[in-house]
Amino acid sequence: MFAEFCGFGPGGISLANAAFFGQPRALKFQVQRLKLDQPAMAPMAHARFCLQYPGDCKVRPIVFRGGPAKLTEARREQLRSVNTEVNRAIRPQANMGGVKAERWLIAPRAGDCNDYAVTKRHQLIAQGWPAHALLLAEVVIASGEHHLVLVARTDEGDLVLDNLNANIRPWTATRYRWVRVQSPKNPLFWATLARPAA
Fold first, then answer.
1. Quick one: DSSP state of residue 11?
2. Beta-carbon-side half-sphere exposure of residue 75 (alpha carbons within 13 Å)
3. Residues 143-180: tens digit of each pLDDT
């Protein structure tokens, strides 16, 4: 569960130069997307977060069909900038109190993966990104710890903004086990992910 949430590397991670890793434009038609499956219970700390920051959890009207955001050069730069700035601004600090002590905070001085992810989402929405294209997602990292990342759904694929890696990567390049993700239709709801076809 969330008691062992967020894997930090030894002494934090070096984020001197954040890079952007995307799919070549010629392969756009082959881009794999996260596929939501069954409804899942939202993390307990997410419910607390929504009480504290209701503006970040409100259902916003979806213009047109509400598909992925067009990844213009300006938006690509926003992703780079927000990912780098938030990763540098928050000092890594593990939650030692377990689930009961878990609080997701926007822009704390020190925090864990949850704080990085919600801060990035908050800042990107403030910069004009559609909320339905910015989804919090719970994953399991190689050490077995649960970890929270932000997924930006774009026309070039679903990209991961992560405090454990300075690069913005396609979700398929993370090597994480995906547990659950926010619904693009309503940020209060979460879902499991469909297993890829063999």
1. T
2. 18
3. 999 999 999 999 999 999 999 999 999 999 999 999 99
